[in-house]
Design goal:
Strand content: 15-25%
Number of strands: 16
Shape: globular
Number of domains: 2
Number of helices: 15
CATH architecture of the largest domain: Alpha-Beta Barrel
Bound molecules: 3-[(4S)-2,5-dioxoimidazolidin-4-yl]propanoic acid, fe (iii) ion
Largest sheet: 8 strands, mixed
Structural class: alpha/beta
Low-confidence stretches: none
CATH topology of the largest domain: TIM Barrel
CATH class of the largest domain: Alpha Beta
Helix content: 25-40%
Oligomer: single chain
Length: 415
């Protein structure tokens, strides 16, 4: 009996970027094949090493020399929200800063009022095209944060909508509770009382309804202080939820180091991260999530400490940060390009950032983000001649097929 008896699908005559070697290389297999069984990758290797395959049982697909990569992972988004902030975009172009707009009652809290007004159905309808855009670019896993409800009812509503999106599209959704994103106006001068609600009311309810896979905090001058962040981390820990943090985006408050003490999954943004923070992240096995869309959109000049992250071998993920205020960009291909052009990542580092390290930032590195036997068969087929094309060109979509859990979910003949 050959192995292939159990296979459902075999992609043959493909090149593979397995992404099993971190950012060091694409983990290439040239003239390869990949077999799927029961939603998992069952075999991969050179075509010349393929066992006999019974074509009456196995669906054989000729990849015609195209490239397979893991399905892409966008590990940091806020893509469920009401309204938009084009007006603030105009204000910024007239000279106001993001912080000035936030302090004047715009910014996150303006999206909060639009999100509170929207029904579940309205939020679902507005989020769907954003998720569809990512899906059509080859994304098979997306993380979505709450944080525009800022009261129990509306935070729960956002997380429910994020869950409903997975019924609309074949995308794996991981949800993150970001109740500590900003202070709602009704608690303007009373952060501690708001955090009582976050920790003692929202979080227990989110946990009891199983609505989140992780907890995040925006630790920043315009967000929450280090002490306040610690409160939320303690509450997350008490509920056994993994921690993520928006840290060191506009200043260095030491939130990455704090998060490292809580064995957090990732610290995200990190333009102002210092070497002490990087060492702490390395020690606790955290992932650095780079968000070039927000850097670009805010016209930041402080670059994340890429060279130090490399030196200390902290894995770097890359994500869209899709949100209405600082990264209204629902395009993972553009993030690949920006990670290279703005942050000087190599194409293999950038691709690792939205595959194996995107998975790691979500605690999924054992099941997603790599082409390896036993991993989920979330796979993208690209009409490209070399993997660097995914980073190099932008605006033409070379995705020709997308497979999620072993099922083909997209096919684009014209790619
Ligand atoms: N950092 C960000 O980039 C987003 N949230 C955060 O904590 C911005 C959210 C917004 O401006 O709506
Ligand atoms: Fe964010």
């Amino acid at each position: 009996m050959t192995l292939s008896k159990h296979w459902q699908t075999l992609y043959t005559n493909v090149n593979l970027a397995t992404m099993t070697d971190g950012a060091n290389s694409y983990g290439e297999i040239i003239k390869g094949a990949l077999a799927i069984s029961e939603g998992k990758i069952a075999w991969l290797g050179k075509v010349s090493d393929l066992p006999d395959v019974d074509s009456s049982v196995v669906d054989i697909i000729d990849g015609k020399g195209q490239w397979l990569t893991p399905g892409l992972i966008d590990c940091h988004t806020h893509l469920v929200y009401g309204g938009n902030r084009a007006n603030e975009f105009e204000m910024r172009l007239q000279g106001k800063s993001y912080q000035e707009i936030a302090n004047a009652g715009g910014g996150i809290v303006s999206t909060v009022s639009a999100t509170r007004k929207a029904s579940e159905q309205e939020l679902l309808a507005s989020a769907l095209p954003r998720l569809t855009a990512l899906h059509q670019q080859g994304v098979t896993t997306v993380e979505i944060k709450s944080g525009y409800g800022l009261d129990t009812l509306n935070e729960i509503k956002m997380l429910k909508v994020a869950g409903l999106l997975a019924e609309e599209l074949p995308v794996t959704i991981k949800r993150t509770f970001l109740g500590a994103h900003a202070l709602p106006t009704e608690y303007k001068d009373n952060a501690e009382a708001y955090l009582d609600i976050v920790c003692d009311e929202m979080l227990p309810q989110v946990v009891s309804e199983n609505l989140a896979d992780a907890v995040d905090v925006f630790c920043e001058g315009i967000g929450f202080s280090l002490e306040q962040t610690k409160r939320v981390f303690d509450a997350a820990k008490a509920h056994n939820l993994p921690i993520k943090v928006h840290a060191e985006q506009l200043s260095n408050l030491g939130a990455s180091e704090l998060a490292a003490n809580y064995d957090a999954l990732s610290s995200d943004h990190i333009e102002f991260l210092d070497e002490a923070g990087i060492k702490a992240m390395k020690k606790s096995g955290m992932t650095a999530v780079l968000l070039p869309g927000a850097f670009y959109f805010l016209r930041e000049t402080q670059l994340p400490p890429i060279e130090l992250l490399r030196k200390h071998q902290v894995p770097m993920a890359v994500a869209t940060d899709a949100n209405p205020g600082t990264s209204p960009i629902h395009n993972i291909h553009l993030m690949l390009n920006m990670a290279c052009t703005l942050f000087r990542l190599t194409p293999s580092e950038a691709l690792a950032g939205i595959t194996c390290y995107g998975a790691k930032a979500l605690g999924l590195s054992e099941s997603k983000g790599q082409l390896a036997v036993g991993y989920d068969a979330d796979i993208a087929l690209w009409n490209i001649e070399q993997p660097a094309e995914l980073c190099y060109q932008f605006g033409v979509n070379p995705l020709s097929r997308l497979i999620q859990n072993g099922q083909q979910v997209l096919m684009n003949e014209s790619a």
